[in-house]
Specification:
The structure is a homodimer of 331-residue chains.
Chain A: H1 4-11, H2 15-23, H3 30-43, H4 49-56, E1 61-66, H5 72-87, E2 91-96, H6 101-113, E3 118-121, H7 131-136, E4 140-143, E5 153-157, H8 159-172, E6 178-182, H9 188-203, E7 213-215, H10 220-232, E8 239-242, H11 245-257, E9 267-271, E10 285-288, H12 291-306, E11 315-318, E12 321-323
Parallel strand pairs in A: 1-2, 1-3, 3-4, 4-5, 5-11, 6-7, 6-8, 8-9, 9-10
Antiparallel strand pairs in A: 10-12
Helix pairs in contact in A: 1-2, 1-3, 2-3, 5-12, 8-9, 10-11
Chain A binds a DNA duplex (16 and 16 nucleotides) through helix 2 and helix 4.
Keywords (chains A, B): DNA-binding, Repressor, Transcription, Transcription regulation
Domain HTH lacI-type (chains A, B): 2-56
Protein name (chains A, B): LacI family transcriptional regulator
Amino acid sequence: MATISDVAARAGVSTATVSRTLNGKTTVDPALAARVLAAAAELGYRPNGPARNLRKQETAVIALIISDVENPFFTAIARGAEDVAHSAGYSVVLCNSDDNPDKEREYIDVALQERMAGVLLSPSGRSANVEPLLRSGTPVVAVDRPLPGSAGDAVLVDSRLGAKQATAHLAEQGYQRIGCITGPSGVLTADERLAGYREGLRAAKRSTSNALVRRSEFKAAGAKRAAYSLLTQANAPDALLVANNAMAVGVLETMAELELRPGRDVGVVVFDDAPWTTLLDPPLTVVAQPAYDMGTVAAQLLLSRISGERTEATTTTLSAHLVVRQSSSRN
Amino acid sequence: MATISDVAARAGVSTATVSRTLNGKTTVDPALAARVLAAAAELGYRPNGPARNLRKQETAVIALIISDVENPFFTAIARGAEDVAHSAGYSVVLCNSDDNPDKEREYIDVALQERMAGVLLSPSGRSANVEPLLRSGTPVVAVDRPLPGSAGDAVLVDSRLGAKQATAHLAEQGYQRIGCITGPSGVLTADERLAGYREGLRAAKRSTSNALVRRSEFKAAGAKRAAYSLLTQANAPDALLVANNAMAVGVLETMAELELRPGRDVGVVVFDDAPWTTLLDPPLTVVAQPAYDMGTVAAQLLLSRISGERTEATTTTLSAHLVVRQSSSRN
DNA sequence: ATGAAAGCGCTAACAT
DNA sequence: ATGTTAGCGCTTTCAT
């Protein structure tokens, strides 16, 4: 593959001139420039990225470290981030941490080694994995969950408020014993949704018993078991707030097995909208999160940090909104 | 950030010794090695990726160019590819081409510039974008759709057979006028599914009229319109084969609006399984594609090419399988 | 406006 | 077994 020297030789100029014409920093004599362009085209020249990166001490690559792209919520974030990055000339490296601090650390190491320009991170937990990043001065912006130390930029959604509104809505619809299935303790979004649920309960003067709460992984299988345990106990809930979309699948499976109809028998509100939620009978009431926007906003923020913006750390909180459909009403 | 010379100085050895201990190519005196490791740790040394890449003339990065990660089929491919790549020490750069040849070309350019080790590509169309890749000797493996020139490695699924079986199944269930909603002409998977549908029709001696076929983008909106046009015409179909999951959403929306119940009124089989297909009433009969496996197989193949394996081009065809549920039977 | 040359940080001959 | 040294291909002073 042709190098800059090949192009220079062919055009009868120095490598410096080639570099200048191709990068357009300084002005170059039009005649020479034309020769350079022609030579480059003839040779099919493509600048060597690694060489340029080494010389410039910077790369146009960012890492996106999320728990799992197969979760539609993160998929949308990924898409948003990639769109913004791409149009700014950056590439994004996809990293699935599975909420495993060790994997997270591995990916952070890679980002550091490759001198990536920045990282978009949905932190797996309280661990101090991020510290090396910060120490190296690599810009980081947290998505969905804040950085453990809580300093630094973050793009979050107010899921506590979303949960509160959802719970209040359920109460308003006449449900009396509202339960909640949320994620693991320590995962901020899980805890926030639970907190919002409790706030909603208090505001609506409904009973707030731990017997109505279950935790599991943010996955269908765990939620399915949790729903079963909740719905078959004495004094079972007559409504459920479910903390994410994958969990909803499990919960609805259990309900089908128990022949409990959403809405009529057990009111249901779930986090995250999805195309298929309207196809169910009854259609699902959801708390929709602006996932794609989180991706774009986070990427924009990261890019501005990369380009040296030095204002103080910001945390942008987008709002979730309740989309009322029929799974949260009795008829 | 510390360089290899800093480490060498601190350990009182040459940079070559540092490089050797850290990469473990040749054996190094244990005493020296210990000093090197200590020095590296104290300085928080991390090898400079771009420098190493430049020197070695290779990178541990592959590009994954797909039409859209938000499509769950591609999401699963992405996840599979990333898992394999990661455990082999490679990173994957996510590229959404939106089936747009121009974007595809941009991403291929980036891959070339950055001297990525290989590319996993789901080609957007017939265009000759791939040619530069091939010319540069960059390993490429096609996923889901073969490379336009049809040479080269590919990991596909036999969606023609899947479509044929699905159609035959529908016929067996007693449906008479079986229709098909597929993707744009020229997109191989769309054409193959249509071909399989026709084969199935012929095998079952059912009428095979173009009036029962519609094409649209592989998206919900287009499919929704297509379904409407199909189902409201004279001699409307009494069953439908739908070529992907996103389209299924549109089709089912139309059916709901027209108060047509899947199975009883119009038999339905759709491509791609998804967690929610069992939650519908009736549960959807699907042609399940092994998307995650396609990702892993393709990545493995790519990695073997990268490491210099020079056997002839292979095309691996995985099979789709029909999962019969209730949307394809009358009762 | 252009060229010569240094050097980014690393690995791999080559020499010892 | 270890050190010396030459580059990988590029950008960017520094001269001219």
